[in-house]
Design a protein that fits this description.
about 400 residues; alpha/beta; seven-stranded mixed β-sheet; globular
C-alpha cells in the first residue's frame, strides 16, 4: 500500500465503488446467464445520427468546441425541449452540453454545494447523487417514498426542509424514476413546487428518461419552477446513445455560467463529433425515441404478466425501462442474498433493491432494455425458481 494513501481526500476514502457495477461484473462470469441489470438500451443508435458523426470526422471537425457546446447543438436542443416539454431556454446562455447526464449531476452539485450543506434525496433512486454529494463534503437527507407509491409527498418534503432549513441547498428529483419506473404528473410537481418556492434552494431535476414516458406527456419541473430548477437531459436513452456521452444541463443563465466553470475545468468540452451526432438527433430525430418506447412498453407488459405469475408485485411503471419488483414473501427478503441466489440457481441477473437507498430492501430492479427473447427466457427461469424455492421453504 502506498504510504500516501492516508493523505487522500477523506471524502474519497470514505466512498466505496459502485455496488451495481461490481455485482454486474461478478455475475457476468456465470455461464448462460441472462443479464437484466444495467440501464443500457439494446437498440442501435439511429443510422442518420451515426452518419452525422462520420461526416463530422470526415470534415476534420477534431478541435475543441466552445466549452458550453457547439451553438448548433444548443439551438437544436433548445428547440427539442421547447417542442417536447414547453421549456424555454436561450441556447446562448441557459444550456450547457455535458459529457452525459452523469457529468451534469457532478458539475451542478459541485458548483452549488459547500461543506456542511445538505441535499434532500427521495429514495429509492439512482444512487450516483449520493457519493457526489458526499464528495463535496455535504450530507444526503433521505426521504423513503416506498409508502407513498414511490412519489415524494409535499408533506414529507416540507418536513425535511424545515428540519434542515439552516443547511439545505438542493432537492433531487429523478423522473421517470430509476429504479421504479414511476413518474410525476403535473399536479404532483405543482404541489412540490409550492413547497420549494418558499425557500432559496435548487431543484436538480434529472429527466434523462423523459422520452420513455408511456402514458400521457412528460411534464418537466423546469416548466413549473424555472427560476429554481436545473433540468438534466440528453440523448443517452432517447436515442440509444449511452456511449456517446452527451448530456444537457439547463437553467437560469447566471447559474449555468457558474456551473460552466466547474464543467470547463473538469472536461474542457464534450467530444466534437459526438456533439454533431447529438445535433442531428435533436434536429432530425425528434421522434426516434417513440419507436423504441413502443417496444419497451410491450416488453414491460410481458414482464409484468410473467412476474405476477411468479408472485412478484411491482410499482406502477409508467416510464424508463425498469420494473421495481417486490420479492414474494415466501422468498429471501434480503435483496443481495436473493439476487446472488437467483443468479447462481436460475441464471438470471437483476439488481438488489437495497442498492437504491432506503425503501429499496425487499425489492429487485429488473431492466427490460433487453431482447424479448432474453426476457421470455428470464421469466420462465424466475417462475421455476420461485416455485422451487417456495416449496423448499415450506418443507
Amino acid at each position: 500500500m502506498s504510504k500516501l494513501i492516508n493523505h487522500m481526500k477523506k471524502e474519497v476514502s470514505a466512498l466505496t465503488p459502485s455496488e451495481i457495477l461490481a455485482f454486474n461484473q461478478e455475475i457476468a462470469e456465470i455461464p448462460d446467464i441472462v443479464k437484466l441489470t444495467l440501464g443500457e438500451p439494446d437498440f442501435n443508435t439511429p443510422d442518420h445520427v451515426k452518419a452525422a458523426a462520420i461526416r463530422s470526422i470526415e470534415n476534420n471537425e477534431s478541435h475543441y468546441t466552445n466549452s458550453r457546446g457547439t451553438i448548433g447543438l444548443r439551438k437544436a436542443a433548445a428547440n427539442f425541449l421547447k417542442q417536447k416539454y414547453e421549456l424555454d431556454y436561450k441556447p446562448e446562455s441557459q444550456i450547457l452540453v455535458t459529457t452525459g447526464a452523469t457529468e451534469a449531476i457532478y458539475s451542478s452539485l459541485t458548483a452549488i454545494l459547500n461543506a456542511g450543506d445538505t441535499v434532500i434525496i427521495p429514495t429509492p433512486i439512482f444512487p450516483l447523487y449520493i457519493p457526489i454529494t458526499m464528495l463535496n463534503g455535504a450530507k444526503p437527507i433521505f426521504i423513503d417514498t416506498s409508502d407513498d407509491g414511490f412519489i415524494l409527498s409535499p408533506a414529507k418534503l416540507a418536513a425535511a426542509i424545515e428540519a434542515n432549513k439552516d443547511t439545505i441547498k438542493a432537492v433531487v428529483l429523478n423522473f421517470p424514476n430509476n429504479p421504479t419506473g414511476v413518474t410525476y404528473k403535473r399536479d404532483d410537481l405543482e404541489k412540490l413546487a409550492a413547497v420549494i418556492a418558499k425557500y432559496d434552494i435548487f431543484v436538480i431535476s434529472d429527466e434523462i428518461y423523459s422520452e420513455l414516458t408511456y402514458e400521457g406527456t412528460h411534464v418537466s419541473m423546469g416548466s413549473i419552477l424555472p427560476e429554481q430548477t436545473l433540468v438534466l437531459n440528453g440523448v443517452s436513452k432517447s436515442h440509444a446513445m449511452t456511449g456517446w456521452r452527451i448530456g444537457l444541463l439547463c437553467g437560469p443563465a447566471d447559474v449555468i455560467t457558474q456551473i460552466g466553470k466547474v464543467h470547463q475545468f473538469a472536461i474542457t468540452s464534450a467530444t466534437t463529433n459526438a456533439q454533431a451526432a447529438a445535433q442531428e438527433a435533436f434536429e432530425n430525430g425528434m421522434d426516434d425515441g417513440q419507436k423504441m418506447r413502443a417496444v419497451y412498453q410491450t416488453r414491460r407488459d410481458l414482464l409484468l404478466e410473467g412476474l405476477a405469475k411468479a408472485g412478484f408485485t411491482c410499482a406502477s411503471p409508467n416510464g424508463a425501462f425498469y420494473l421495481f419488483a417486490k420479492i414474494p414473501a415466501t422468498l429471501n427478503q434480503d435483496s443481495w442474498k436473493f439476487c446472488y441466489d437467483l443468479a447462481k440457481k436460475a441464471k438470471v441477473a437483476v439488481i438488489p433493491g437495497a442498492s437504491f437507498g432506503p425503501g429499496g430492501e425487499g425489492y429487485v430492479r429488473i431492466s427490460y432494455a433487453a431482447s424479448t427473447e432474453d426476457l421470455t427466457k428470464a421469466i420462465k427461469r424466475i417462475q421455476t425458481y420461485a416455485a422451487e424455492q417456495t416449496v423448499a421453504t415450506a418443507k
